[in-house]
Design a protein that fits this description.
Hypothetical protein af1432, mainly alpha, 16 helices, 2 domains, 301 residues
Length: 301
Amino acid sequence: MKKTKHHASLSLESLISKAALSPLSSIGPVVHKVMAILRNPASSATELKEMIEVDPPLCSQVLRRANSAYYGIRRDISSIQEAIVFIGFNAVTELALSLKVGKIFEQEHKVGGYSRKALWKHSLAVALCCKYIYRREFRERGDDIYSTALLHDLGIIAEEQFMPNAFADLIERCVSENASLPKIEEELFGYTHAGVGQRLASHWRLPAEMTAAIMHHEKPPSILPPGAKQSRPALTVCIANYACIRAGFSCCEPPLPPVIEEGKYEEALAQLQIPKRALELIITEVQGELKQLQENGELYL
């Protein structure tokens, strides 16, 4: 059999260095600002307003979305202060973060069955799923979980942007062999997109529980003890990632198989004490929300 020639990939260190000097690096400070506001009980609408208003393009995008059919506000919203009042503090914060992170997905790029916009839809689906899990199943606000889930596949963007030829080889192999991304990444690169994302998150000095969740989003973090602070967000992102892929939210068409098996997924659900039916209902709601955004022309920037 003729052996396929593959393009050379970058070392993990070289890839991180390139990403750190690119527009991707602008995400770190934004996430820090959002987390500081959400984590501080004394944070006010004024602080959130000021964070958004110092970025005029972001400010205009937030106002445009606030006036969209999605929120159904029956009056014109002309200021960030009004948006916070009518939409809600948390909703405006999540919207601002989504719009800022979404900029890196703005330009569509397709290779093989992969689509950058499909990756954004998947990332948003996982973020929504994690948010609903925290609020409905854990009865917690989950200040960092939306940010964490939104960034969980950041390593894929880094691979796609900074070693496009090797990334094309990766997608070709995954699709032709119906194999998961991490399996072929390890063979071709010697590392996975989860490891790339974890290194970027560490470079930005994001909290340990966030970096752990990004690192372990493809499979349950079995190396973490059940009571560890990092375990709940890591397991939550992992099961949300699995459920969203199974629901058809994948960066590739046809969807690539998830890494974990059904049994491990159910084991993770049991560890978090989440009924399987509860997560199925959450996925249905996520599907409806993303469908509405897409029909309104608001899913992509």
